[in-house]
Write a structure and sequence with these properties.
There is one protein chain. The protein is of the alpha+beta class. The protein has 2 domains: about 1-30; about 35-165. About 40% of the residues lie in helices and about 20% in strands. The protein has helices at about 1-30, 90-105, 125-145, 155-160, and strands at about 35-40, 50-55, 60, 65-70, 70-75, 110-115, 120-125. Strands 1-4-5-6-7 form a 5-stranded mixed sheet, with helices on one face. The chain has a two-stranded antiparallel ribbon with strand order 2-3. Helix 2 links the parallel strand 5 (about 70-75) and strand 6 (about 110-115).
C-alpha cells in the first residue's frame, strides 16, 4: 500500500514539474494563452496564406493569430530588444493585422501583441489607432499615385531588404 502512495506522489511531482516547464515555455514564446490558429513562421504548421482586404488593397502576414477565448488576436514577433516606446512602424504594422483580422472574421480584435526579445506588449486596437492607420494608408496611396513616394531613410541595409528594391530608382 505504501508503494502505491509513493508512486502517486512521484507522478504528482512529475506533473507539477512538467506544468512549470510548460508555463515557462509559454511565457518565452510571447504568445498569449490560447490556440494558435494562424502562423507565418512555419514553426507550428505549414505557412498560411496572407490575410487580404481587396477594398483597402492591404495584405499582411502576422507572425501568429491566437484564439483567446473566441477572440482572434494578432501577434507580431520582433527579433530586437523592446524600445522604450514602440516604434510607429511597429504599431501600424500590428494595427494593419488587427484590421485584416477584423475584415476576415467580422470581429474586431480588442488588442494585438508586439513580442520583443525582452518583453511582450499588449497594444489596444482603438478607434484612434485604426483611424491613424487608415489616414496613413490614404497618404501612402496618394503619394504612390502622384509618383512622390520617396525613400524615407539613408540606410543601405534597409534598402537591401526592401520588396521594392528591384524597381526603385532611389535605392542605396
Amino acid at each position: 500500500m505504501i508503494g502505491v502512495f509513493v508512486l502517486a506522489a512521484a507522478l504528482l511531482a512529475a506533473a507539477v514539474v512538467f506544468f512549470i516547464q510548460a508555463a515557462r515555455r509559454q511565457r518565452q514564446t510571447g504568445l498569449p494563452v490560447g490556440k494558435v490558429v494562424y502562423s507565418d513562421t512555419g514553426l507550428w504548421r505549414e505557412v498560411e496564406k496572407p490575410l487580404f482586404d481587396s477594398l483597402l488593397g492591404l495584405t499582411g502576414r502576422p507572425d501568429y493569430v491566437v484564439d483567446e477565448n473566441g477572440r482572434l488576436t494578432p501577434v507580431e514577433v520582433k527579433s530586437s530588444w523592446a524600445p522604450p516606446v514602440p516604434y510607429d512602424s511597429h504599431l501600424y504594422q500590428l494595427a494593419a493585422y488587427c484590421l485584416l483580422v477584423e475584415k476576415k472574421t467580422g470581429v474586431r480584435p480588442a488588442h494585438g501583441f508586439l513580442h520583443y526579445r525582452n518583453r511582450t506588449l499588449s497594444i489596444p486596437y482603438t478607434e484612434d489607432l485604426e483611424t491613424r492607420l487608415l489616414d496613413l494608408l490614404a497618404e501612402m496611396r496618394l503619394a504612390e499615385r502622384r509618383g512622390a513616394a520617396e525613400r524615407s531613410h539613408e540606410d543601405p541595409a534597409r534598402c537591401a531588404r526592401c520588396g521594392y528594391r528591384s524597381i526603385c530608382d532611389q535605392r542605396l
